[in-house]
Design brief:
The protein is mainly alpha-helical and 92 residues long. It contains 4 helices and 2 strands, in the order αβααβα.
């Protein structure tokens, strides 16, 4: 993949997303804490929503704290997010 283009915050979020293993999910809040911005869960969700590199940068592995899927910026929207998670054997 060529060099990524985004804000410093987006790049930080996207870099972290690449560390989430296949078959696992994190919440927006867990991602915010992991990137040392614990109060930025909403900003993490926005960075995921603006991810033009889905599914190579796996924003589909990030869900809401209540266990619901949230959104998906990749082609196919939320149905594709669900399909990707199921293909990775995530119980959703």
């Amino acid at each position: 993949m060529k060099s990524l283009s985004g804000t410093i915050f987006q790049l930080k979020v996207w870099k972290y997303l690449k560390t989430i293993p296949k078959g696992r999910v994190k919440t927006y809040k867990q991602v915010a804490i992991a990137i040392k911005s614990p109060k930025s869960a909403r900003a993490v969700a926005n960075a995921c929503a603006k991810n033009p590199y889905a599914p190579k940068i796996p924003c589909h592995r990030v869900i809401r704290s209540d266990g619901t899927l949230g959104g998906y910026s990749g082609r196919g929207g939320i149905k594709q997010k669900l399909k990707l998670l199921r293909s990775e054997k995530v119980a959703i």
